[in-house]
Amino acid sequence: MSTNSKLIKGIQIYSDDRWIENGFIKIKDEKMVEIGSTEQLSSQEEFEVIEIPSNYKAVPGFIDVHIHGANGADTMDATKEALETMAEALPREGTTSFLATTITQEEQQIEKALLNAGAYIHGKQSPGMAEILGIHLEGPFVNKKRAGAQPIQHIIDPNLDLFKKWEALSEHSIKLVTLAPELPGGLQLVNYLAENGMIASIGHTDATYEEVLEAIDAGVNHVTHLYNQQRGLHHREPGVVGAAFLKDELKAELIVDGVHVHPEMVKLAYRQKGNKGIILITDAMRAKCLKNGHYDLGGQDVIVQDGKAVLSDGTLAGSILRLGQGVKNILTFADCELEDAVQMAAVNPAKQLNVFDRKGSISEGKDADIVILDENLDVYMTLCRGKVAYFKGGEAK
What is the pLDDT of residue 3? Predict the structure, then answer.
């Protein structure tokens, strides 16, 4: 399947908030050029036809704004090969673009990872692999009280001068920063991020409700992995979770693996935030796609067993969740529809990253990032910018 012009037909298509039964998508030069009902299909000679069972569904490619690694590779490996490994592995779960996510480490290690990711992002990324849209800098500007799996010895207060240096090193590829705004220098950094088109996210934080409101005023508009490693909901102190529930300005990431957040708390978040207020993420580490065993995360030993990744003291250390499974899980946990899950896995992250003009929906003129789900809503095929990146039946590139 190497031709630049493809025609997917005979399938249910979710396009711009509506379903097209027995639909078609024409793809040319990495873009979707025509979408409609097969009855309206005109010439198709120049197109390579991909016939799909009529009960399968085409939805926009998923966007993971928070992922550290997959299939043995990690952003912090700071090699081109590691990023390529991730970009090749992620289409299996329906992810067509993502933010390469760092972790708290010594400054030199972070700088190597930023240099490497920046060069990769600005190089020619190939169709047929998930696209890296930018970098998510998670740490080191976080609160030691809420470190979680962030190596505590490398945590530092927010530092605007240091961040500007890192921004330059990354070739201005940093799109999202997780920080604790209550720390000295926190609001100053939030201000800078907001003024320069980056997402300021509150995470690994002990901020009170009032401190979150201050941070929102300064420019925070995102919450890193809601519930996890932040001040929780209390009837006398609403905390970060209370602010996330009450403030529409905040988009909240959610790890829907049934491990990080109890299914009933997923349902509670969904009822409070609705389908437009949540962004599904994996926060996955390198053990995703691999067997149980011992793995590295930020220089720490992580034990992966029975669907959980933990440090030796039992602290959760990222996930091994596949985003396609997170989409299926939220249908059950939150009692919502596939359209809602697509909103949370594709539309919301695209809008938050300001790439909705080319990602996040099946629309004419946008990148041909398409996920085809089978009758069980498992990923059957994924196209990244018009090229088949994953096919359940075997190789199809």
Answer: 60
